[in-house]
Amino acid sequence: MQKRRQCRKVAIGDDRVGRIAIGGDAPITVQSMCSVYTHDIDACVAEINKLSDAGADVVRIAVPEKKDTAALAEIINQTRIPLVADVHFHYKRALESVEAGIHKIRLNPGNISDRDQVNDVIDACKGAGIPIRIGVNEGSIIERRDKQKRMEELGAYFEGHRSGHLLAIMIAKLEEYLDIFHARDFHDIIISAKSMDATLVIDAYTEIARRFEYPLHLGVTHAGTRETGSIRSIAALGTLIANGIGDTLRISYASDPVYEVEDGVELLCALDKRERTGIELIACPTCGRIQVDLFTLVEEVKKTLDREITVPMKVAVMGCVVNGPGEAEGADVAVFAGNHRGIIYVQGERVANVKEEDILESLLAECKRFEDKINRGEAQLGQKNVEIVPPAPIGELGSGAEKIASGDVEQITIGES
Ligand code: SF4
């Protein structure tokens, strides 16, 4: 993991909903976007609350029409999370959103490029003390009428790059747009440069991170369904975050936005950028040694424990006692299934041996008992009292003992640099 890139810090929110910092040393935040019509106030409020409950820090809503900005004041009044107005084509929607008390504006240089209009939005945001995200999207950035000419003019900057022309246009457009903001001494800016191509996203953000001092909102746009979208998004966003780039993110799916939030939170937890608020599930991938219906069991365990347990304990669900104990090393609570039974351990201590059909209920009961002990201060996460001893390996080969004893082991240099 690389050290986090240094950049400006921008605040979003107010006294009522609280303020969230984006950039600097602030934790990386998770965003999502409502999928319902903004002018349907009840549906919009319900979805914002659902996304907030799932772990979103910021929620964006589209304001294509005046009836949408007209609904904002009431939506803001009924919710408790910073909201962003997503503005395309009509700069007046931005002005109306600011007037309604929105916490941030997102502008797209690809479809609002009139200098006077942009100046009006900047002045309104400056007056209200709210930031603007400049979102340069691949899909809307190309000026189609003179596309060929622009490609030829700008392509030379990134000659040899697979998407060099596109990257050149994104950067050049961003620079032109930023000049307008700088001329008005406006710096409460967050930048995004999304594409549906994960490699272009990595290269664009890496280049932008090198050139500009503003916080970056990461995302792969039009990533598809959760199945393909998660791979594209995690490949790009995971790479960037591991390289120290990115201050807030949105994973986008053609699906329920709650999945976007769940997967964004999981990505940050996996990269140790956010503390868990519930269980961390370890599950074996299964193999020919399996003797229970582990796929169903794992699904049920996840669903049940996500609902019932709030302490961030590690829970392992393993298919057998052959390799399971070794692979579940570090779990606070673990079940090893075999011969249609489950053996449950809590911090290394064997506490139950139950029939397959009783595994879920018993595991939940043990997790709850352990959670109570944690809450009473009688146990600590990640501590094992009794070792779970897996079957002894046959022979020493592969233990690494000989190599370490010989002193012929290269120093490990992986880590923050
Ligand atoms: S824990 Fe057992 S069943 Fe699961 S993958 Fe490992 S060896 Fe196979």
How are the SSEs placed, and which strands pair?
Blueprint: E1 9-14, E2 18-23, E3 29-33, H1 41-54, E4 58-62, H2 66-78, E5 83-87, H3 91-100, E6 104-107, H4 115-128, E7 132-135, H5 138-141, H6 147-155, H7 164-183, E8 189-192, H8 198-211, E9 217-218, H9 226-242, E10 248-250, H10 257-270, E11 280-283, H11 294-308, E12 314-318, H12 324-327, E13 333-338, E14 341-346, E15 349-355, H13 359-375, H14 401-406
Parallel strand pairs: 3-4, 3-10, 4-5, 5-6, 6-7, 7-8, 9-10, 11-12, 12-13
Antiparallel strand pairs: 1-2, 13-14, 14-15
Helix pairs in contact: 1-2, 2-3, 3-4, 6-7, 8-9, 9-10, 11-13
Bound molecules: iron/sulfur cluster.
Iron/sulfur cluster is lined by residues 284-287, 289-290, 318-320, 322-324, 327.
What does this structure look like?
The chain has helices spanning 41-54, 66-78, 91-100, 115-128, 138-141, 147-155, 164-183, 198-211, 226-242, 257-270, 294-308, 324-327, 359-375, 401-406, and strands at 9-14, 18-23, 29-33, 58-62, 83-87, 104-107, 132-135, 189-192, 217-218, 248-250, 280-283, 314-318, 333-338, 341-346, 349-355. By secondary structure, the protein is α/β, with parallel strands linked by helices. It has two domains: 9-270, TIM Barrel, CATH 3.20.20; 280-375, Sulfite Reductase Hemoprotein, domain 1 (2-Layer Sandwich), CATH 3.30.413.10. The strands form three sheets. The chain has an eight-stranded parallel β-sheet, covered by helices on one side. β14 and β15 form a beta hairpin. The chain starts with 8 loop residues before the first strand and ends in an 11-residue tail after the last helix. The mean pLDDT is 89. Iron/sulfur cluster (SF4) binds next to α12.
